[in-house]
Amino acid sequence: MDKFIIKGGCTLNGEVTISGSKNAALPILIATMLSSDDSIIGNIPNLDDVQNLKQLLMDFGIKILHFDKKNYFSHIINKEFCYSEPSNEVVKKFRASILMLGPLLAKIGKAKISLPGGCAIGKRPVNMHLDGLSMMGANIIIENDQIKAHVPNGRLSGARIKFRFPSVGATENIMMAACLADGTTILENAAQEPEIIELAQALNSMGSMIIGAGTRTIQIIGQKSLKGMRHIISPDRIEIGTFIAMATITGGNIFIKNVCLKTLQSIVINFQKIGCNFHVDQNGVRVNASKQIQNINIKTAPYPGFPTDMQAQIMSCLCVANGISYIQENVWENRFMHTLELTKMGADISTHGNLAIIKGKNKLTGSKVKASDLRASAGLIIAALSAEGTSEILHIHHLDRGYVTLENKLVQLGVDILRVNDSNIL
Ligand code: EPZ
User: Fold this and answer.
1) Which residues contact ligand 1 via a Cβ below 6 A?
2) Tens of pLDDT along 208-241?
3) For 337, phi and psi rounded to 5 degrees?
4) Which has fewest Cβ within 10 Å: 56, 278, 358, 426?
């Protein structure tokens, strides 16, 4: 297993290019299976989750050719699509595999797929996915961890579906399924994340008719068939936020190329409050952090609230803020696993259910810590950047699921970081 060795006390300076969004790329790659034509997608991030998804798509006879490696353009060839039962082992490696269910039911009327895996940040049920698809006419049972589904009359029907919680995945799954359903589907209390808007744009490039993506109510008018997709994946907003946090904790001054802050309002507002300055121009965004971090109260929430996927990153910054900060995690029931590791570095954090109280310290101390999930890994790296001395961050494979060669980007920004393969790590 790999680990990072990071020499702390650095100040980030320089330019960084953000990779394509993991949470946009995964549903968009899956959406291509809704058409029998080929699709062309640009800026697909080379991540473990994307590689695992490509493996699953190949199980269905779908070929993915990289025809322009420089811009990560991929040619998705659907001509030999065939029914398959994707590998349980791969399905369980990540959460987004569940997003194949809706498109398979829409395309061929049947699917057998294992319940998904993903970060251990909560129980991660899929009841909203299954309930929505059942309302569209699918018969679904779960046996021995396997979802078995089929559409008795061959084609899904449009339905009015109201989510009890604005689930990102359930919104994506049902939206894709509804594109080939008979009639119109209305999603109420739908997720509004930017990735929903981007998926709708990609689906509309295939000839879908989706109205209202990005609002609480989305209308999808089912089509008989769809043509191939043409889409370029946007930069990853959570990676942008992660670099903002890295600049903040090190008092750095970095330029993030070719991005805008349109989808990061809540991140920008809260990082401005703790001491970050932003300057936007036509080529990107300059992030200039003050030397002192102010304390703050954060409540994570579905978009446009403060994203849960930035909770660990801002917590690390608040460990060395002036005063006491409070973070309430309102999306996942087990997303404080990084707090124990941060306390090993000298942080003063106490958790009470979904509330974390962080008493800012002057400094953290470099230590050996363990990553537990994707964003916790990012949080530990952020803490290590500012800690006094050297840190070792074990189980860095969690990070590789969502960040493309992060260590190379950090070296470009002046960080002394090394990836080491440590076969002794269990
Ligand atoms: C997506 O997960 C993201 N993953 C997550 O990012 C992100 O944290 C999450 O949305 C919230 O923004 C991808 O896009 C691949 P949800 P998803 O369905 O779709 C409950 C990262 O770090 N729920 O919006 O799985 C669920 O338990 C990852 O990149 C049900 O109860 O999240 C949770 O409490 C981590 N039943 C809440 O809703 C369901 O059927 C939000 O889940 C579905 C969800």
Assistant:
1) 23, 26, 95-96, 119, 122, 124-129, 165, 167-170, 191, 308-309, 331-332, 374-375, 402
2) 999 999 999 999 999 999 999 999 999 999 999 9
3) -65, -20
4) 426
